[in-house]
């Protein structure tokens, strides 16, 4: 019943943000398994599948484009696209530049290091170690706030770059989204690495992901929120979820 009501509301209300045109959505394309470029050169991943499903639920064509992480909010503000589906966590700074939908998944952050080396990942235990996280992430903010006085913090260009630094032995540990790390740990590059210590508690390093829209675009935000509920209720979300993860990430 609720699914029918939501579908009726969505079909009854036109959305001026994309009326007559494809809904242009940005993702990063460098954050597997959430968003990446596959062997055929096409954008793929959980975020990409979710974005496509939301467009189908809203009955609109969508165009998904790859944008570098450090300029992805700039493009939204400039009107280059209408939404960002890129595993974006909500921060105080980002909240000043965009509006956000309801969440579409959540995770926690964890350290990754050579398997078996670190059980304690407190600032005291990692004193003198070289740590890294991707630029522009809540994980980097956390390292700077809690570890920079006792450890060296290296800024990686993006998450794949942090994995490269770790695999090449240029850093001791990385802090990243625990779900994202699964893909790395299952790869040949990550075969000698594992989670270090426990996943970090608290909201400061949680990776609750939201979809960003331009500030004031309440119409599109509402439509996307309704679409999230539709794909949750009709089983689409669950199918996409289990394509990438063996457990629910909602």
TrEMBL record:
Pfam family, one: SBP_bac_3
Organism: Desulfovibrio ferrophilus
Residues making up the signal peptide according to the UniProt record: 1-19
InterPro entries referenced in this protein's UniProt entry, alphabetically: Solute-binding_3/MltF_N
Organism superkingdom: Bacteria
Gene3D superfamilies: Periplasmic binding protein-like II
Keywords for the protein's UniProt record, in alphabetical order: Signal
Transmembrane stretches, start-end: none
UniProt keyword Signal present: yes
Protein name: Periplasmic component of amino acid ABC-type transporter/signal transduction system
């Amino acid at each position: 019943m609720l699914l029918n009501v939501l579908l009726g509301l969505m079909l009854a209300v036109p959305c001026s943000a994309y009326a007559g045109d494809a809904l242009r959505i940005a993702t990063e394309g460098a954050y597997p398994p959430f968003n990446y470029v596959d062997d055929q050169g096409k954008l793929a991943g959980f975020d990409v599948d979710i974005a496509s499903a939301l467009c189908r639920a809203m009955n609109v064509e969508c165009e998904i484009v790859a944008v570098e992480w450090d300029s992805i909010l700039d493009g939204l503000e400039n009107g280059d696209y209408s939404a960002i589906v890129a595993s974006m966590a909500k921060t105080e700074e980002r909240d000043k530049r965009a509006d956000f939908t309801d969440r579409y998944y959540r995770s926690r952050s964890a350290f990754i290091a050579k398997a078996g080396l670190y059980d304690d990942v407190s600032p005291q235990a990692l004193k003198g170690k070289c740590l890294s996280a991707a630029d522009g992430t809540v994980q980097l903010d956390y390292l700077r706030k809690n570890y920079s006085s006792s450890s060296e913090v290296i800024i990686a260009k993006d998450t794949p770059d942090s994995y490269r630094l770790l695999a090449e032995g240029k850093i001791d540990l990385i802090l990243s989204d625990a779900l994202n790390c699964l893909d790395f740990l299952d790869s040949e590059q990550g075969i000698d690495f594992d989670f270090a210590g426990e996943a970090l508690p608290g909201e400061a390093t949680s990776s609750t992901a939201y979809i960003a829209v331009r500030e004031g675009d309440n119409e599109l935000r509402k439509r996307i929120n309704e679409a999230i509920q539709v794909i949750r209720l009709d089983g689409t979300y669950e199918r996409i979820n289990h394509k990438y993860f063996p457990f629910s990430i909602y």
